[in-house]
Specification:
single chain, 403 residues, alpha/beta, five-stranded mixed β-sheet, 18 helices, 16 strands, 39% helix
């Protein structure tokens, strides 16, 4: 008789919880003998806390947060592992109508170009006489914080002097912008589309333009639970793999949007979710722009937990003075992401997987077949400023980063 596994997973109502939702609703979890319970939470702090006290076994979580927990930066701090990513991309930088109008006057365009629009934002800031703009992010230990800061800094904007960065729950971003409490925000979907269509906002740029094929949410696992329940964890990774295939098929996007729109999940209209799934984004003023690889749930090894992603997040924690750089801390960050667990769980499926556990980020300028079979394609993965991150040269990368 097949052993059944009871797994409780937390999530925040965002489009990139899609793999967990599809695993439950489309029967992929049941096919692996998993009784999967999904629990919606409003904030990332609640996700972290409930993982710590073992109310959740696993969770849809910010990519850097398990690293921060293992480094002791976030309390309560469960020891965590990341055996799988939940997709690539999915975020955007949204600004108020007033700020966009000023940026457009300074050269910003509707094509979401990170370099051009970052330069326009810098011109606006230069003319403010030291009065900072306010931007919202979802958590200090988030890809949103680091990609926003990276974009700003590479555009000549000091994120600590020229910008006041506030933490807000994702569902509150659009309303805060409309009320004039913030001038912009970096968030996941559907909250950028909501801001544009319902609160008169405008997209300034997107994650896929700042860093192509870049990491976002991951499956965070309470390490004690994972160590005690390896078969259940492996079964969940198989279920999520099948869910990623289903979510990545454009023929399923309309149904996926309807599932995510249910009150138990994202709880917003499907027409706010479809743009991010299709990559046809409303950017403001009635303009819709196609964005290649805006959100990637399966292709390009989107679920593989690259150690180079973990280490890039770590370099940003160091850069913005959240943690001291030591060899011990670097090792903790690298060991949080567990491609070995991913490979062991999915090996029997015979799928193409990366043979390396890390790669030089920013090195691929085009889609590139890798491996002897060529069955796996990676990239492009470039940073908008032409930067590269070699995970074997962390010290030099940290030293070279300017504040």
């Amino acid at each position: 008789m097949t052993m059944r596994h009871a797994i409780t997973a937390g999530f925040v109502p965002l489009l990139d919880s899609a793999l967990l939702v599809a695993a439950r609703e489309k029967g992929f979890a049941e096919a692996q003998s998993i009784d999967l319970t999904l629990v919606r939470e409003r904030s990332w702090a609640s996700i972290r806390d409930r993982l710590a006290v073992r109310q959740f076994d696993v969770a849809h979580i910010l990519g850097p947060m398990p690293i921060a927990c293992n480094l002791g930066l976030s309390a309560p701090a469960p020891k965590m592992i990341v055996p799988m990513a939940l997709g690539l991309g999915g975020n955007a930088v949204t600004v108020s109508a007033a700020l966009w109008q000023a940026m457009a006057g300074a050269g910003a365009t509707d094509d979401l170009d990170a370099r051009r629009n970052g330069a326009a934002l810098r011109k606006i800031i230069d003319g403010r006489g030291g009065e900072p703009l306010r931007f919202g992010i979802v958590h200090p230990y988030s890809g949103h914080n680091y990609e926003l800061r990276y974009w700003l800094a590479a555009s000549g904007v000091d994120p600590d002097r020229d910008i006041e960065i506030l933490v807000l729950p994702p569902p509150d971003m659009g309303d805060a912008l409309a009320e004039g409490l913030i001038d912009g925000y970096c968030a996941g979907e559907p909250w950028n589309t909501f801001g544009v269509l319902k609160r008169g906002a405008h997209l300034a740029t997107v994650k896929a333009a700042i860093w192509k094929s870049s990491p976002e949410k991951v499956l965070g696992v309470n390490a004690r639970w994972g160590e005690a329940n390896p078969e259940a964890l492996a079964a969940l990774l198989v279920a999520l793999h099948h869910a990623s295939l289903w979510c990545g098929d454009p023929r399923n996007h309309a149904e996926l949007a309807r599932l995510l729109a249910l009150p138990a999940y994202v709880g917003r209209a499907a027409d706010l979710l479809l743009p991010a799934l299709s990559g046809a984004l409303p950017v403001g003023g009635g303009v819709v722009r196609p964005v290649v690889d805006f959100f990637v749930p399966h292709a390009k090894a989107a679920t593989f937990p690259w150690k180079s992603h973990a280490l890039w997040f770590y370099t940003q924690m160091v850069r913005w003075r959240q943690v001291a750089h030591t060899e011990a801390n670097r090792e903790i960050a690298a060991e949080t992401y567990r491609p070995d667990v991913y490979r062991a769980a999915l090996k029997a499926l015979g799928i193409a997987m990366p043979s390396a556990s890390a790669k030089v980020e920013g090195a691929l300028t085009a889609e590139t077949p890798v491996g002897s079979s060529g069955a796996l394609t990676l990239g492009p993965d470039g940073f908008f400023d032409g930067g590269r991150f070699d995970p074997d040269a962390v010290d030099g990368y940290i030293a070279a980063q300017s504040r």
